[in-house]
């Protein structure tokens, strides 16, 4: 079976960022001859700056600027020599100042990203393990990932979930010398913090637990000498805790700093720390500015600056609490987040604020889940009370307008962020003049002719196909196979369908579309915990069917409104069912639909290719093969025709109880060997329903006795085929004996015999479904690229699988 091309996390990020750039909220250029910190120039317009991470405003301090200028005049623009050999003349002074701030040895690095790459592989030994908070900064995750090549296990927990961390400790502490938990001190999107004191208590309970904090957003505005939020919470730095912070952002200069109280560990990192050894050192201007900032941090002035920032934060908090805005986290940090839910609402809101004269940042995937898009606002000492108040008033005015313009409600946003809404409003878009909605939970409530006119030739979801699926999966006593069905038809005033589809609510393996290597690793864990990374999903179509599950008349003037009505129905189901993920699937590449789904909080993933044979005209095998390319004809003569005589072919509509068990085991073999599309096996009772249903039949290959190991003829391959109302033949799934698959080309023989059977039945087309597109193409099938659009409750599973898919 052909391998499925894995979905690339970076491809998803690229598409999100590209769209945001088109919307004018990313990859902007500041203009103007002077930057003050209070304002920023964008497209020739001066905007009040509410997007800085220089919370204390030190980057504009005259003392830091003058120190940088003097250093350039004295030492040049850079010091081009590895720090391992010789450090810049000012470096020792900087290290002494920062050491004095922390009261512990420090290491200065070029930036935090290179610092993590240098420090993490140095402090984590091959006998250790790593546990990541799933919201820890990308630079930490990226630095940890290569340690998998040293067989260091890397686990991940949900954000700030100490119960989950303790469970990891129970399983890891007996096998590993140290378990490093890596987290941010202050998280840069929502402004929430790590539970530092609780983590310290947990580390007292488990001696192997070591803590590694990235506190770049907690630096300067908190803590003694401005050493940051984590140090403020710790008081004294224990030997089993490492703190990484920054000399840029709020500190006002450049570079990063790592501190630890374990002098032996400090020496090990400093002696050889990867990029700490081989990368260029900080420029003289940066070192000098950092010294000037350190002097401020070591004086009482830092507490004055902290207090002034705190007053602005307190003022903004007080203003926000008088509004109905969905503030995701209320705290005393300088980071605030106003949820918008859908990206399109975020784009609209940001652009409205830009026009009003306020620069803010948009929080986007992957920093937040796609459905948790929002506006990140940062408060600095540059911001004056009058513009803080003006920003609040602008948000109160424009937020409901942004919601209305993008067909959503504040209630939907509050739900997306699990916030308690104080609003009683309901969607204005549940009813659209000129369109009517039929919503059903059973196919029997839908007109047969109408449904088949839309779906009669599409896979196993014509009217009879869905009756079969409901009979098999609806109200099943095993939760793995217990599905709920939801049907939706949207018509215009002339009773003409504009949109139709169906959804199922079912238990999925979350790695269904993940790379095969990831599924292999997850299946090992499922041996101990069968429900590991399994959750309920609301999906267009079902786990059994493949094809165009959405009927959409894009020539109709109201098709976009119909799509919006569909999303409204999905929102209702989301509230009722609370699935971990919503999936719209099996679409061809379509730029318009792609933009629609992305703007409404869904990201695109690549699905396995689908294959069909259209306009099938069968006379005999020879005439069919003559229509294929020369290469395909060679393939037939080499890999199919010579083996046809090795089999006895049997086609049955009904099968015995013994055959059902044999065929089910053959199907399970295929399932076990095809982790690229990792799904639950179907229930064995499915065979009974197929055998009783006149629309199903079985194409069976018996390998002749002289070719088998036991010299007995046995079934080695079976194709489970459905004939739908539109005269399409659907080989829905397959079973094979892998002891003979390669030697006798069982898979290729089944494909050919399926085409032959469809031709003899005078079927007009064959729907081969997903995977192995290359093999099907060689037999005349047309291969189509397919995509799905997904929305998850959070990014945890996606990031965990991305981590598992790295180097081993």
Automatic annotation (TrEMBL):
Cofactor(s) for this UniProt protein: pyridoxal 5'-phosphate
Q: Which UniProt keywords apply?
A: Aminotransferase, Transferase
Record-linked InterPro entries: Aminotransferase_I/II_large (IPR004839), AON_synthase_class-II (IPR050087), PyrdxlP-dep_Trfase (IPR015424), PyrdxlP-dep_Trfase_major (IPR015421), PyrdxlP-dep_Trfase_small (IPR015422)
Query: Which GO MF terms are attached to this record?
Result: pyridoxal phosphate binding; transaminase activity
Q: Which domain of life is it from?
A: Bacteria
* Annotated Aminotransferase class I/classII large domain residues: 51-390
User: Under what name is this protein listed?
Assistant: Aminotransferase class I/II-fold pyridoxal phosphate-dependent enzyme
- Species this protein is from: Aestuariibaculum sediminum
């Amino acid at each position: 079976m052909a391998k499925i091309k894995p979905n690339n996390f970076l491809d998803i990020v690229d598409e999100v960022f590209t769209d945001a750039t088109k919307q004018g909220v990313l990859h902007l250029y500041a203009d103007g001859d002077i930057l003050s910190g209070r304002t920023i120039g964008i497209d020739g317009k001066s905007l009040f700056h509410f997007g800085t991470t220089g919370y204390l405003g030190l980057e504009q301090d005259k003392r830091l600027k003058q120190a940088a200028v003097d250093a350039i005049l004295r030492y040049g623009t850079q010091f081009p020599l590895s720090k391992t050999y010789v450090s810049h003349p000012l470096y020792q002074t900087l290290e002494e100042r920062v050491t004095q701030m922390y009261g512990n040895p420090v290491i200065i690095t070029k930036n935090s990203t290179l610092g993590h790459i240098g420090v993490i592989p140095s402090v984590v030994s091959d006998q250790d393990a790593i546990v990541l908070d799933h919201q820890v900064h990308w630079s930490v995750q990226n630095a940890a990932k290569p340690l998998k090549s040293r067989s260091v296990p890397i686990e991940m927990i949900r954000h700030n979930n100490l119960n989950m961390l303790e469970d990891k400790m129970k399983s890891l502490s007996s096998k590993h010398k140290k378990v490093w938990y890596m987290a941010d001190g202050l998280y840069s999107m929502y402004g929430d913090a790590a539970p530092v004191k609780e983590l310290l208590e947990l580390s007292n309970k488990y001696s192997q637990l070591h803590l590694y904090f990235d506190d770049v957003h907690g630096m300067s505005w908190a803590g003694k000498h401005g050493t940051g939020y984590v140090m403020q919470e710790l008081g004294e730095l224990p030997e089993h805790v490492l703190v990484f912070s920054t000399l840029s952002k709020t500190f006002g200069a450049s570079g990063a700093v790592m501190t630890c109280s374990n002098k032996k560990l400090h020496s090990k990192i400093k002696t050889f720390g990867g990029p700490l050894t081989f990368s260029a050192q900080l420029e003289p201007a940066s070192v000098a500015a950092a010294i000037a900032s350190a002097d401020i941090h070591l004086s009482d002035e830092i507490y004055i600056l902290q207090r002034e920032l705190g007053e602005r934060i307190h003022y903004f908090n007080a203003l926000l609490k008088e509004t109905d805005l969905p503030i995701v986290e209320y705290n005393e940090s300088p980071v605030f987040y106003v949820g918008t839910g859908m990206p399109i609402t975020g784009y609209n809101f940001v652009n409205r604020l830009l026009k009003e004269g306020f620069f803010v940042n948009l929080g986007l995937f992957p920093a937040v889940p796609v459905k948790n898009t929002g506006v990140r606002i940062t408060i600095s000492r540059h911001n004056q009370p009058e513009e803080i108040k003006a920003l609040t008033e602008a948000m109160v005015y424009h937020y409901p307008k942004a919601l209305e313009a993008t067909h959503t409600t504040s209630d939907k946003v509050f739900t997306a962020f699990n916030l308690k809404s104080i609003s009683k409003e309901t969607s204005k878009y549940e009813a659209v003049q000129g369109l009517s909605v039929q919503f059903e939970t059973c196919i029997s409530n839908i007109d047969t002719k109408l449904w088949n006119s839309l779906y009669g030739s599409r896979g196993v979801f014509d009217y009879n196909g869905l009756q079969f699926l409901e009979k098999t999966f609806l109200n099943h006593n095993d939760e793995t196979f217990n599905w709920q069905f939801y049907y939706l038809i949207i018509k215009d005033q002339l009773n003409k369908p504009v949109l139709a589809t169906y959804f199922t609510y079912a238990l999925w393996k979350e790695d269904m579309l993940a790379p095969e290597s990831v599924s292999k690793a997850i299946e090992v864990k499922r041996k101990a915990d069968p429900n590991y990374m399994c959750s309920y999903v609301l999906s267009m179509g079902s786990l059994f069917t493949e094809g165009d599950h959405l009927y959409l008349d894009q020539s109709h003037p109201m098709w976009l409104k119909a799509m919006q009505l569909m999303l409204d129905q999905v929102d209702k189901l989301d509230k009722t069912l609370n699935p971990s993920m919503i999936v719209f699937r099996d679409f061809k590449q379509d730029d318009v639909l792609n933009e629609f789904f992305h703007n409404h909080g869904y990201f695109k993933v690549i699905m396995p290719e689908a294959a069909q044979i259209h306009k099938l005209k069968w006379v005999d095998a020879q005439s069919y093969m003559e229509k294929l390319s020369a290469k395909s004809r060679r393939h037939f003569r080499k890999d199919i025709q010579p083996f046809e005589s090795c089999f006895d072919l049997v086609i049955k509509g009904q099968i015995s109880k013994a055959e059902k068990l044999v065929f089910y085991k053959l199907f399970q073999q295929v399932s076990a060997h095809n982790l690229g599309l990792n799904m639950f096996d179907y229930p064995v009772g499915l065979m009974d329903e197929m055998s009783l249903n006149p629309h199903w039949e079985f194409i069976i290959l018996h390998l002749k006795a002289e070719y088998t190991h036991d010299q007995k003829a046995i079934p080695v391959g079976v194709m489970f085929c459905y004939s739908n109302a539109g005269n399409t033949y659907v080989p829905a799934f397959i079973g094979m004996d892998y002891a003979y698959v390669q030697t006798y080309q069982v898979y290729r023989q089944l494909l050919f015999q399926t085409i032959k059977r469809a031709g003899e039945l005078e079927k007009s087309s064959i729907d081969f479904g997903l995977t192995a597109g290359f093999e099907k193409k060689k037999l005349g099938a047309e291969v189509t690229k397919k995509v799905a659009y997904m929305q998850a409750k959070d990014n945890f599973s996606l990031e965990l699988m991305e981590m598992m898919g790295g180097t081993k």
